[in-house]
TrEMBL record:
InterPro entries: Secre_tail. It comes from the Bacteria. This is Secretion system C-terminal sorting domain-containing protein.
Amino acid sequence: MVLPNPVADYARILWRGDMAAGTRAEVYNVLGVRVYQGLLTNGEVSVDASSFGSGLFLVRVVHPSGATNSTRFFKK
């Protein structure tokens, strides 16, 4: 889950699934370019999206086992 959606400057990525040390969030623009990567702490991470252009972004939560989940958000 991404809050708020649409995003203005900062986004909170929340993950309530299986957590393990090393679980990370990755954000990609529509061209497939990774624009952010960070580790989740207590199931969440705050992303400074102020430098992202407006548009649609893909969020991937990657577990150390290799399992992934994804969601999207829109940047104003």
